[in-house]
Amino acid sequence: ATPTAIMVGTSLGAKRGVLFKNAMALEASASIRTVVMDKTGTLTRGEPEVTDLVTAPGTDEVRLLQLVAAVERESEHPLADAVVRYAEAQSSGTTGGTQQFENVPGQGAVAVVDGRRIAVGNRRLAEQEGADLGELASAREELAATGRTVVIACIDGRAAGLIGIADAPRETSADAVAELHALGVEVVMLTGDNRATAERIAQRLGIDTVIAEVLPRDKAARIAELQRDGRKVAMVGDGVNDAPALAQADLGIAIGAGTDVAIETADLVLMRSDPLDVPTALRIGRGTLRKMR
Ligand code: ADP
Ligand code: MG
């Protein structure tokens, strides 16, 4: 009966674009107790857009955008794309040139532009630059409280401005969380973004546990912690950064619209990139296992 049940489960999944890579993936999906979901590109659309620009007193908006865009043009991060598009839409113009570009994984990017050191990224990066948010601190809190990702721009170690970026939740994310809860499964959000931003979005989606401000290299270790008492954990992700966590999980689930690395590493691929297909996959797994007993 075993091979037949597996064939039935696999083809049932395939009809919905839920691609189990092998029999073990199907079996693992039956015993999942915790589903960890990456925020950006999994729970959200992964189409970030700049909504706010706040400058420190004495900083010119157009000049700041020029400098920031000069750094972000060299970065491949989705947030960088959003910043560059915004700068171009404001026709902020270009600079003399970008030198010594450095990508800081999970934090941002740094470069020298027109002889000035420009750092663009999260609070951790700003702190490393020795920057004090000063008058920008309250604006940062307000933006994060609305679920915006807040990028800090530093010029020569001084916080010069904030960029608020919105990435809307996917339409079915909240329903997917509700269905997982109905299946008795705990849902956890895992993200490199800051805590206040992540918590606001989690609250909107009905997610109770948030693991935020995690560096890409630490994501797999956070999955291992959740597995400690033998709990079976699934991880859903889309990015290059997510691959080690997908490999660590008992069931790695890649969003079909994700990167090749994520898709290759995963045990299960959701072709429609629909979070609702996560509970669907777990139900198929449970149904298959029942038939095997
Ligand atoms: P996620 O977990 O959402 O995939 P990342 O680990 O890629 O996030 O990045 C974590 C945080 O680092 C982002 O929320 C952002 O604040 C900052 N960051 C990373 N790369 C950049 C960049 N190129 N420009 C601005 N901010 C960045
Ligand atoms: Mg990501």
Summed up, what is this model?
This protein has 293 residues and is α/β, with parallel strands linked by helices.
How does this model look, in words?
With 293 residues, the protein is of the alpha/beta class. It folds into two domains: 10-45 and 169-292, HAD superfamily/HAD-like (Rossmann fold), CATH 3.40.50; 49-166, Calcium-transporting ATPase, cytoplasmic domain N. The chain is built from 13 helices and 13 strands. It has helices spanning 2-15, 23-30, 39-43, 61-72, 78-89, 123-128, 137-145, 173-182, 195-205, 219-226, 243-248, 260-265, 277-292, and strands spanning 18-20, 34-38, 49-55, 98-104, 108-113, 116-121, 149-155, 158-166, 186-190, 209-211, 233-237, 251-255, 268-270. It has a seven-stranded mixed β-sheet, sandwiched between helices. Strands 3-8-7-6-5-4 form a six-stranded antiparallel β-sheet. Helix 9 links the parallel strand 9 (186-190) and strand 10 (209-211). Helix 7 (137-145) packs parallel to helix 9. The longest helix has 16 residues, at 277-292. The N and C termini lie close together (9 Å). The mean pLDDT is 94. Adenosine-5'-diphosphate (ADP) is lined by residues 39-40, 72, 75, 77, 79-80, 106-109, 120-122, 149, 151, 191-193, 216, 239, 241.
